[in-house]
Amino acid sequence: MNHGEWMKKMTAHPLWQRWQAWRHPGMVCVLLAGKLWAADLKEGRFLRTASVPLEEMTENAVAAAFRALAEQGMKRKEILLLVNFPDLRLENRKYPAMTEEEMVETMYWEEDRLFRTEEPMAPGWEVTSHSPLGWEVHVEAVKKETLSLWEKGAALAGCHVGKALPVTAVPLSEEPHFILYGRKRSAILIFRKDRLLRSRILRREEKGKGALFMERCLANFNIQKGTCFFIPLSDCGREEETFWKERMKEEIEREGENGLLPGSLTMAENFLSDYGGWADMEILFRRLSSGRLTLPLTEKRKSFITEENRTLRAAQGLCLVSLLFFLLAGGEFLSAENRLSALRREEGRLKPQKEQLVEARRTAVRERELEQLLGDLEKKDGRWEEKLVLLAESVPPGIVISSIRQEGDVIHIEGTAQSNERLSLFRNSFSASWGMAARNGSRKADPVTGLVDFTISLKGGNHGPDETHE
Questions:
Q1: Per-residue pLDDT tens digits for 257-311
Q2: 173-267 placed in CATH 3.30.420
Q3: Could you name the domain of life of the organism this protein comes from (predicted)?
Q4: How far apart, in whole angstroms, are the C-alpha atoms of residue 434 and residue 387?
Q5: DSSP state of 61
Q6: Nearest to 52 by CA among 153, 146, 152, 151
Q7: CATH classification of 1-170+280-300 is 3.30.420.380, yes or no?
Q8: Global pTM?
Q9: 384-469 — its CATH code?
Q10: Dihedral pair phi/psi, residue 33, rounded to 5°
Q11: Do the strands 186-193 and 35-42 form a parallel or antiparallel pair, or are they unpaired?
Q12: How are beta strands 134-143 and 121-131 bridged, if at all?
């Protein structure tokens, strides 16, 4: 597999798609001059763009256009749809003083009467002015049928329209300005100052109305200068864009004749250029974050938990809980393993000290036992020291005593003699030193070495406690 094939396979992987979706903001789509344009934006800059033809406005055609965009690399599933359709409507309404809750309820009940159309509309609104005297509201809407067509088409292509933003709801400057939105048979001229908005519909046969509207707005708001921008709507082709730009240039250039003061209006760069199409939209994309008014979506997303999938969701929840429990148990196991390893290392480090401590305790125990034995001997026989000295002196060379024990009033001495003669000499010497006759016990000679293992017993008197000493 070469590098190109490897990169293609990697970028087609779902994990890569999710990574790209996380890195980049939402994909923006707009219909312009018979083409569906898409752009990935970051901080108002184009990361990449693509376009596909869209001549027929049906659900299947829209779905096919989204699929074609995906083949060109525009695979984002969440879409910001810029609403620039010919049936886009604008309206400013004033309402008397009321609470904010009452205002919201009023707009809900006024929804069907705002634009006096037979078709149901999908309106969005924002408050442009509020004072003790009342409310001023700007409303924009498009036919629900149109918006639903785009939502269903995106759904067929595996996408989702997350937000519908009218292009007329996006201010293009912080300063007071005019925006001319070109359409096929008419145009919309808007004046913006902060959140205030005024609009006027311009028709082809009506000359001078645009300049008159601009002159009145500048005078009413006491503004000395303003800038005029141009944004094409979806049905604005090359001919229509050229017509509206020339019409507005002509009216502005006749300053003084139509009431406009010389130098009061400045035309933006995209207004002065020839047919720009997609290029004319660049300034709009840089200001998308300023748009606050959105249209309500007509197609509700399927609920996460429904009657059909609740058993599946319950099983998925149980699996998730089991996974969390497994991860928690694994974490506890690793933590316990780490603690145990640390204790083992500490134990290995302290092992020499531990052995020394155990040996010291054993020595202390032996010393206490010896002290106890000596004390008992002192109580029972005051001459035990003298007798032990006599025993030590009576052991001749060639005799090794291995143990001395007492059973009742009999003392048993076990050891090894070099020969029977040495054993007899030791028995006689032992009897003489203790003043008692010692008798032989068991005796066993080693035929190879000639050594004799022996036992000598001495009976009579109380010689100490019933203990065995080695």
A1: 656 667 778 888 777 666 666 777 778 888 887 888 888 888 766 666 667 777 8
A2: yes
A3: Bacteria
A4: 7
A5: H
A6: 153
A7: yes
A8: 0.59
A9: 3.30.1360.100
A10: 55, 50
A11: unpaired
A12: antiparallel
